Amino acid sequence: MPITVNVPAPRAGWAPRAAVRHLPLRAAAALLSAAALLTGLVPARADAATTTAHPSPARLQQDADAVRDTGVTGVSVRLTTDHRTRTVRSGTGDLSTGRPVPPDGYVRIGSNTKTFVATVVLQLVGEGRLSLDDTVDRWLPGVVRGHGNDGRRITVRQLLQHTSGLPDYIGEVAPHPSAAEYHRDRWTTYTSAQRAAFALRHPPSFEPGARWKYSNTNYVLAGMVIKAVTGHSWEHEVRARILRPLHLAHTFAPGNDPYLPRPHAADYQQFAPGAPLIDTTVAYLPFDGDADGSMISTTADTNAFFAALVRGRLLAPAQLAEMRRSVAVPGDPGTPPGSRYGLGLSWTPLTCGGGYWGHSGDGYGYMLWPATTADGRTTVTVSLHSRPGDPDTATRQIRATTTLIDHALCDVRRAKDGARRG
């Protein structure tokens, strides 16, 4: 779901993955548990921790509580600097038992999957095995055709940057989002080719390269391009090229397995304003099963991935520069002003100057938002375990989340500046 702006909802109450991805879900205050609110301060290296500036944990906890107070059932935050990690939690990890959110449980990362996929594509570019200017038809001949869509006129770069104009398949696999649809269709599986074909039933949104609009179809096709180039699935390449080298043992693509490993918090979706919360911890496979948003991770692994990526551990300088070449994205109520989108990576300004790289992701009942500073030395990931049924509440939750991130990254900067001056 991706950066916080996206395709307008095709029907009331529905927004596709990755953008505001308001798969909204309100959690009434009466349902919130007074579960333990843990603030942890754990030095990653005892010999260096005492010399590393770090802000007080009080505001981080207050900001997590503020996210909870917008109606989120459970919130988890992990802030990592060079030598310290701080975690805070708020709310509850299970409405039926009141148990707390696990400090580093497994979470669905939704459209953060796109950043992993874009990284693999750019590695292949660096190896000379494909070009960002290759057409989609070069690798997937005849796949993108119909209703004015033409893979001969769309480049790999445009897929990764959401400037292809291709329609989004999400509205086809979840046409009437409701608790009944979730329970009826959550086990339904589709191939990548089927997902692409669903999208191609509709005309393009615009001419390739003319503007920006988020479409999950782009990354379904990017995953297919990876297989065409390497002979292996995108999951295989992500595992071999990213997860193993970085030792991200708690990150994986589950395929069509809909269950989260333990420990994990329960996720809850409200499908309409005033409707009850529905436990949606089990994946909705029609859109939780491909290169656009299927991966599972932890906040620790997510922090490690984005920090490594921005610090140049996964891409050569030329390819990292291509990933960071960004275009402005259309604003909406949940989007911080000045947000931009590169190749599977979004840029958001900070109130203290500069900005951060990341990519939000969400789905039924969850939202994950990682953010790392331009030097990759400070990273924070916020995990929300419920989504509301009305857009206004969804916007408030996104704003509370981006405020937390802004405060966390700016506070670390101020603490470091103060330590240098001292």
Any chance you could write out the topology, listing elements then pairs?
Layout: E1 39-43, H1 46-49, H2 57-69, E2 74-80, E3 84-91, E4 107-108, H3 113-126, H4 136-139, E5 145-146, E6 149-150, H5 156-161, H6 170-173, H7 179-185, H8 192-199, H9 217-230, H10 234-246, E7 268-270, E8 277-279, E9 296-297, H11 299-310, H12 317-324, E10 327-328, E11 340-341, E12 346-349, E13 355-358, E14 361-363, E15 366-373, E16 379-384, E17 386-387, H13 391-421
Parallel strand pairs: 7-17
Antiparallel strand pairs: 1-3, 2-3, 2-16, 4-9, 5-6, 7-8, 10-11, 11-12, 12-13, 13-15, 14-15, 15-16
Helix pairs in contact: 2-13, 3-9, 3-10, 3-12, 8-9
Keywords for this entry:
422 residues; 13 helices; 17 strands
Q: Which outline best applies?
A: globular
Q: Approximately how much helix is present in the residues?
A: 25-40%
| Low-pLDDT stretches | 1-52
Give me the secondary-structure category: alpha+beta
Q: C-alpha Rg, in Å?
A: 20 Å
| Averaged pLDDT | 88
> Whole-Å distance between the termini?
42 Å
Number of helices: 13
What's the β-strand tally? 17
Summarize the biggest pleated sheet: 10 strands, antiparallel
Q: What portion of the residues fall into strands of 2 or more residues?
A: 15-25%
Order of helices and strands: EHHEEEHHEEHHHHHHEEEHHEEEEEEEEH
Describe the structure.
The structure is a single chain. This protein is an alpha+beta fold. 33% of the residues lie in helices and 15% in strands. The protein is built from 13 helices and 17 strands. Strands 1, 2, 3, 10, 11, 12, 13, 14, 15 and 16 form a 10-stranded antiparallel β-sheet that branches. The longest helix is centred in the C-terminal third of the chain and has 31 residues, at 391-421.
